[in-house]
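Project outcomes to date are best conveyed with an example. Our students and postdoctoral researchers have been running inverse folding experiments weekly, and each run begins with a structure described purely in tokens. The record below, which covers 374 residues, was selected by the lab manager from last quarter's runs and is presented without edits.
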């Protein structure tokens, strides 16, 4: 029978089938907890998804997006939080995976009211979840969250904006993929198509330009495309043309699910390596890239520089220590390629397997709490 709850205008009916589907989805994806929050006074509507705390507190940014539906926002939160678990596991960090979604229009929301409300809900989780910057948020927004909770990173004077670190990590991952494909990690003269010229995409373009790469850039915001094109003497193309660009590397640095049935046939590249989360619409698309001999650097490995920079907030790492950790993404990528080659599997399967093994090992033999805080 449906459940009924007393609402402000009478009884509301909530289908038991709705509950069942949510729990089935959480079980399928391995989530521990999903928190739906609402604060009418501020206009805040949010979802906090905690995928795993096996390795430690769940970490993951707060994303602001005006989703078409609550279902779409929920699926994004579930996928992104699971990706954070795998990202931390492969990076060897003592954190689990989480993610926050704030359903709002960035152009009209009252940022102080909304982020302070979000901070209060984060605080109620008692440290099980630590948030930071993500799409649609900034270090200034994290300062607002910090007025209500200490469980927030990316603050000024500590970790700060993670975008440059994320970009550096993607650059190192791209170098590793080039080494594996062409025998040299020199990206000079290589053509790289960058999809998305926001904070991370722009910083990636800066790294690549310094390395002598030729750039093709695109963004749904024409001004961002123009800015990157002018700064780095790049070729600007439309959002629709970026997939078929004549390039060596495709770097997805916008939203996820851009590697799919429609885009894969258009790709002319040898490598896919970018900063976007959840680049594969479905797992099988990773297999399809493999079948086309396109090297895919698993997204949560390539973009792990941002979470590694969180060591400054949570462990007091120096900038030098953060840089060393981010530069190490190069070796991590090569180790994943080696596993994939040895086991004759797609690279995303090799990376997932490595993350899952580390999670199983932790369950069997928990690590000392300070092992990674040295």
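After processing, the design step wrote out the following sequence:
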């Amino acid at each position: 029978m449906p459940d009924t709850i007393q609402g402000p205008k009478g009884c509301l009916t909530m289908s038991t089938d709705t509950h069942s589907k949510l729990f089935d989805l959480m079980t399928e994806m391995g989530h521990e907890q999903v928190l739906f929050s609402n604060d009418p006074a501020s206009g805040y509507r949010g979802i906090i998804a905690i995928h795993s705390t096996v390795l430690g507190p769940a970490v993951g940014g707060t994303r602001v997006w005006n989703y078409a539906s609550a279902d779409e926002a929920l699926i994004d939160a579930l996928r992104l939080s699971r990706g954070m678990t795998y990202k931390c596991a492969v990076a060897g960090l003592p954190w689990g995976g989480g993610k926050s979604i704030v359903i709002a229009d960035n152009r009209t929301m009252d940022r102080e009211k909304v982020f302070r409300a979000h901070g209060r809900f984060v605080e109620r989780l008692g440290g099980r979840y630590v948030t930071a910057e993500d799409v649609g948020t900034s270090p200034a927004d994290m300062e607002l969250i910090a007025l209500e909770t200490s469980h927030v990173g990316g603050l000024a004077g500590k970790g700060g904006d993670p975008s440059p670190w994320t970009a550096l990590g993607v650059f190192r991952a791209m170098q590793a993929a080039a080494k594996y494909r062409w025998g040299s990690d020199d990206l000079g003269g290589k053509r790289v198509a960058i999809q998305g010229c926001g904070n991370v995409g722009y910083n990636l373009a800066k790294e690549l330009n310094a390395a002598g790469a030729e750039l093709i850039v695109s963004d749904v915001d024409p001004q961002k495309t123009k800015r990157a094109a002018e700064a780095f003497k790049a070729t600007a193309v439309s959002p629709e043309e970026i997939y078929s660009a004549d390039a060596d590397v495709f770097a997805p640095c916008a939203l996820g699910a851009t590697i799919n049935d429609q885009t894969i046939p258009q790709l002319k590249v040898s490598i896919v390596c970018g900063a976007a989360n959840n680049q594969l619409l479905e797992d099988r698309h990773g297999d399809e890239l493999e079948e086309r001999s396109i090297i895919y650097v698993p997204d949560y490995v390539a973009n792990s520089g941002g979470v590694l920079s969180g060591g400054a907030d949570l462990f007091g790492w120096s900038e030098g220590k953060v840089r060393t950790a981010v530069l190490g993404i190069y070796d991590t990528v090569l180790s994943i390629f080696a596993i994939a080659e040895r086991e004759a599997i797609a690279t995303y399967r090799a990376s997932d397997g490595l993350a899952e093994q580390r999670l199983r090992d932790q369950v069997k033999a928990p690590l000392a709490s300070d092992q990674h805080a040295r």
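The CA atoms of residues 205 and 232 lie 7 Å apart. Residues 1-27 form one domain. The training component of this project remains on track.
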